């Protein structure tokens, strides 16, 4: 072996060895898979008795609200005995109201007079112990636009609200405070410019349909809370898009952030989404059982996490569009455990296709016979000696046989397809059904090209 060949061999072996070492360094064996809630639950994925959950179709919320005024931005207390929400259109008439659960349902809602002013008070959020009420307002004394505020409760009366300061507030608008269950993280939305962005208009998130987009979009932010004081806010870049994200709410366990967005790919205008906070996973749409072709916002969950309340401007069943009813109302849905249900299909009526199947076989036989004869040299010579009329007749018979064969094939095939697609074919159709009547997932609604827009702050 000459020197050049030896050198080339050494180089090749060295390159292969280096590539192998790099691949081994980056190689990872497949780790164990688990079902987990990010906390106490950690069960091996294989063989785990995982349950399936779906949201029931949303319904108007009974008892606690309803009337001629807009009602939105609901929040439950930690014990589920108190519901706080906003009544009145933003722009000077939006106030905070409170209702309490009784043995006969929700009590008549009462305005929180010690907090409400001539300006707007919106977006209520109660601390876990119920002693602190967060909200946003354009009252005097703020940093600018709509600011986040908090009021302490002394007995049954709320004290003078305090501005949460420049750590979270800006000269733009801050909306929708939402606390983590431990109270150590505050989520909210703002239309402040992002890092490196030029200053933009401070136009509010309109209370009516927005036909023009001249302002910066609203994004989600989070800030650490220590002893009731907010630290510096930072954008939740993994959730924000070029569309609006706002109206955040934490799940009772603190593992999911629910919010509203008018991003592309939704069911209607604004849709409700949720995202796992711990792993910063992509947000998922709550689906057509919750969302509608209208605007759906302001999610709020009860302490058990199974009941979701939100606001929507969808039409209520039986409501008169010209009756002067409130545009936004409170709706709710409940998550239910579901199971797969196989609905038996109708039997295929084969007898109806027998005439066409017979015609198909009759037309195929002469074609097969003709093909067999043409493959023989003796028969080709005999057919070649036929007269012109006889050959034309033979060709005509072959063409008609082909046409009849094609037509009968189309007739039988299209009939079978129609039966199967119409639910009349053999086998089973798999559907998802709830354990109670009316609990099935509602069908997806079409998304309008002209997307409606929402309010989360006043008209100006």
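Sequence proposed for the structure above (460 residues):
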């Amino acid at each position: 072996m000459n020197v050049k060949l030896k050198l080339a061999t050494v180089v090749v072996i060295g390159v292969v060895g280096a590539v192998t070492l790099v691949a081994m360094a980056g190689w990872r064996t497949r780790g164990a898979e688990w079902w987990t809630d990010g906390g106490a639950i950690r069960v091996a994925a294989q063989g785990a008795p995982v349950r399936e959950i779906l949201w029931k179709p949303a319904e108007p919320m009974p008892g606690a609200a309803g009337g001629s005024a807009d009602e939105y931005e609901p929040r439950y207390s930690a014990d589920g005995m108190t519901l706080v929400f906003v009544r009145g259109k933003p722009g000077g008439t939006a106030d905070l109201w409170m209702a309490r659960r009784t043995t006969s349902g929700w009590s008549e809602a009462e305005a929180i007079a010690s907090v409400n002013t001539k300006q707007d008070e919106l977006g209520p959020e109660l601390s876990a112990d119920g002693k602190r009420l967060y909200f946003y307002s354009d009252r005097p004394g703020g940093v600018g636009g709509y600011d986040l505020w908090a009021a302490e409760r002394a007995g049954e009366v709320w004290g003078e609200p305090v501005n949460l300061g420049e750590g979270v507030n800006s000269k733009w608008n801050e909306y929708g405070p939402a606390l983590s269950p431990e109270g150590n993280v505050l989520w909210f939305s703002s239309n402040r410019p992002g890092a490196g962005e030029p200053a933009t208009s401070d136009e509010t998130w309109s209370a009516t349909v927005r036909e023009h987009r001249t302002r910066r979009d609203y994004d989600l932010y989070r800030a650490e809370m220590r002893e009731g004081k907010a630290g510096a806010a930072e954008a939740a870049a993994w959730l924000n898009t070029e569309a609006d994200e706002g109206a955040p709410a934490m799940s009772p366990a603190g593992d999911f952030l629910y919010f509203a967005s008018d991003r592309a790919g939704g069911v209607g205008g604004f849709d409700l989404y949720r995202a796992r906070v711990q792993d910063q996973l992509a947000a998922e749409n709550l689906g057509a059982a919750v969302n509608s072709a209208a605007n759906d916002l302001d999610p709020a969950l009860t302490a058990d996490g199974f009941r979701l309340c939100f606001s929507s401007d969808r039409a209520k069943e039986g409501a008169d569009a010209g009756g002067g009813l409130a545009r936004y109302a409170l709706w709710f849905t409940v998550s239910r455990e579901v199971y797969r249900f196989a609905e038996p299909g109708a039997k295929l009526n084969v007898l109806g296709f027998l005439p066409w199947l017979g015609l198909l076989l009759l037309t195929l036989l002469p074609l097969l016979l003709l093909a067999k004869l043409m493959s023989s040299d003796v028969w080709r010579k005999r057919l070649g000696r036929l007269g012109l009329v006889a050959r034309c007749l033979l060709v005509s018979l072959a063409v008609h046989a082909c046409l009849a064969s094609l037509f009968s094939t189309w007739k039988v095939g299209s009939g079978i397809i129609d039966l199967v697609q119409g639910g009349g074919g053999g086998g089973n159709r798999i559907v998802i059904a709830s354990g109670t009547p009316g609990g099935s997932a509602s069908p997806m609604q079409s998304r309008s090209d002209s997307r409606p827009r929402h309010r989360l702050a006043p008209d100006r």
